[in-house]
Design brief:
single chain; about 550 residues; mainly alpha; 22 helices; about 75% helix; about 0% strand; disordered N terminus
């Protein structure tokens, strides 16, 4: 066995290829953390469930087992909502994908993060109120309320596909990349399977309640890990100026030319905005956290907390990747940047904590995806097709669905290796598949004339077309034949056109479908009156303005 090498946090370290041997102390920290992070959510979740049941009995209400399992009893306060949103988003793709993407294309990759803050403001103003008003378990169920059952089934099927082949597979692949660096002889499929099982333990047993508590723990530890790696990397570079010179002007700019291959500035509107709207406003995986909020206010405050944390990603996860350009200029695989930084710059024990944070981030995302998939299978398919199914049977079905979804993602994850970076895979495939979803949801809220037939046909026509276009333009050619962010804009425009044309050619929707689920100006007026006298710190509109102003400052400074 190689002798232990303790690398100090100083300007003299960094630049050489590190020893990737995991020491006994690192391994002990990782195992200890993983054990505790499994036990605490299950115990705390069980206590919260007992307390909620006692309160329900005291008030004479009947406890709903499926609501407890899939939405945590709709009883989560804003810090849990916000941290769970961040933890779900902050998968291995954050540590591994953002650092690798920054090494490859610079800080422009932060576009997906600052745009998230803007989108979350749009979400809490114009979209979340309709979701909570409808009292749905899933977003496909919301589509049935607004449109019809056909739209619900079509979107539920897409959600399952996205959960398994996009979200979960990418998270498991990110973890396998880290394991591969540490243990090259372990087959990727084995690493993926072990990580998946770790995530499944408390998802299957505890439901969303355990997942939200776990997410809050994981988000806190992951953010702490980001701070540690940032400090270590900053101390290792020669100077900020030398780092910026090594990276070059383009990699130190948030806004890139229109002909840039990775992130052209028009793509911010045509693609980044569209993908972000899907992820934060129509994705069951993410929105389920807000559906479990105690009230609309808690859902809004939690979403704003997530927005502020997303802005910190520039410093915690992206700048370390850019700094690595001056430390390791010749890495073959950008996705190995993060483990290289950890093992070159951090001492034994501390790097064990960081690796535990990476594994925690990955399993946190996977457990959230599993809960989302099981909720869709149970509430959108089983309960819809067999409405007499008991509460106990619904929960059991959700657990079985969790296992099946896990197996599918495990088998698919290794195929992601054919893409240049993990982030490219995620953004590219989403750009082709999600524009019809965004169009159907947002148009349905904005205009009551959009019909159920139009929504259904848009989903079943445009999504298969998007998948075929993705394969023909991104997978089969040696070089992509169209920039994927531009493809997203084209698909969005075609989807909106299809929605409008089909709606206008057919009869108007039933008033019962649109009365409570489309935007009206009086909603704003009524809420403005309700907000009078609300403390500034509790007024979501004031906090939203602060978040947008901070976002604008960051974009302008680094443009």
């Amino acid at each position: 066995m190689t002798a232990d090498v303790l690398l100090p946090l100083s300007g003299s370290s960094g630049g050489g290829m590190p020893d990737f041997t995991v020491r006994a102390l690192d391994l002990s920290v990782i195992i200890g953390y993983l054990v505790l992070s499994r036990i605490i959510p299950l115990v705390a979740g069980a206590r919260m469930k007992r307390k909620a049941h006692a309160e329900a009995q005291a008030s004479g209400k009947e406890s709903d087992a499926s609501e407890d399992y899939f939405l945590g009893g709709r009883n989560f306060i804003w810090p849990f909502v916000g941290l769970s949103l961040v933890a779900t988003n902050m998968s291995g793709a954050t540590f591994v994908g953002l650092a690798g993407g920054a090494y490859e294309q610079g800080i422009s990759i932060f576009a997906y993060e600052w745009m998230s803050a803007v989108i979350l403001v749009v979400f809490i103003f114009f979209i979340l109120p309709f979701y909570l008003r409808s009292k749905v378990f899933t977003l496909p169920e919301y589509l049935e309320q607004r449109y019809d059952r056909r739209s619900r089934m079509a979107f539920a099927g897409f959600n399952l596909f996205a959960n398994m082949f996009i979200d979960m597979a990418a998270a498991l692949f990110a973890g396998a990349v880290v394991v591969k660096v540490l243990y090259p002889d372990i087959p990727m499929i084995v690493s993926v399977a072990v990580l998946a099982i770790l995530a499944a333990i408390y998802t299957v047993i505890g439901g969303l309640g355990a997942v939200m508590i776990s997410d809050s723990i994981q988000a806190t530890v992951t953010l702490l890990g980001g701070v540690i790696v940032l400090i270590a990397t900053f101390n290792a570079i020669e100077s900020w100026d030398s780092m910026a010179q090594a990276a070059g002007d383009e990699k130190m700019s948030l806004i890139l030319p229109a002909d840039n291959a990775d992130l052209p500035w028009p793509g911010l509107i045509t693609g980044v905005l569209v993908v972000g709207l899907y992820y934060w406003t129509t994705n069951q995986l993410v929105v389920q956290r807000t559906l479990g909020a105690k009230s609309l206010d808690h859902g809004r405050w939690g979403s704003l907390l997530a927005g502020f944390i997303k802005l910190a990603f520039l410093f915690l996860f992206i700048f370390p990747g850019v700094m690595a350009i001056s430390l390791y200029p010749n890495l073959d695989n950008p996705d190995t940047v993060f483990p290289t930084l950890v093992f070159d710059l951090l001492p034994v024990g501390l790097r064990g904590l960081i690796l535990a944070a990476v594994i925690a981030a990955i399993t946190s995302t996977v457990d959230s995806i599993l809960n989302s998939a099981s909720t869709i299978v149970t509430m959108d398919f089983v309960k819809t097709l067999r409405p007499d199914t008991s509460q106990r049977a619904l929960v059991f079905t959700g657990r079985v669905a969790t296992v099946v979804a896990l197996v599918v993602a495990i088998l698919w994850a290794p195929f992601i290796a054919q893409f240049d970076t993990l982030y490219n895979y995620l953004q590219s495939v989403l750009s082709f598949l999600v524009p019809p979803v965004v169009a159907v949801f947002l148009a349905g809220i904005a205009w009551k004339r959009i019909s159920g037939t139009a929504a259904f046909l848009t989903l079943i026509i445009m999504q298969p077309v998007g998948l075929i276009a993705f394969v023909l333009t991104q997978v089969l050619p040696e070089e992509p034949s169209i920039q994927f962010l531009y493809a997203a804009g084209i698909s969005t425009a075609l989807s909106v056109l299809l929605l409008v044309v089909i709606s206008l050619l057919g009869p108007s929707p039933d008033e019962s479908k649109t009365a409570e689920l489309t935007w009206k100006s009086e909603y704003w007026t009524e809420e403005s009156q309700a907000l009078q006298g609300t403390a500034v710190w509790a007024n979501y509109r004031v906090i939203s303005v602060v978040l947008l102003a901070l976002t604008a400052v960051i974009v302008v400074v680094w443009a």
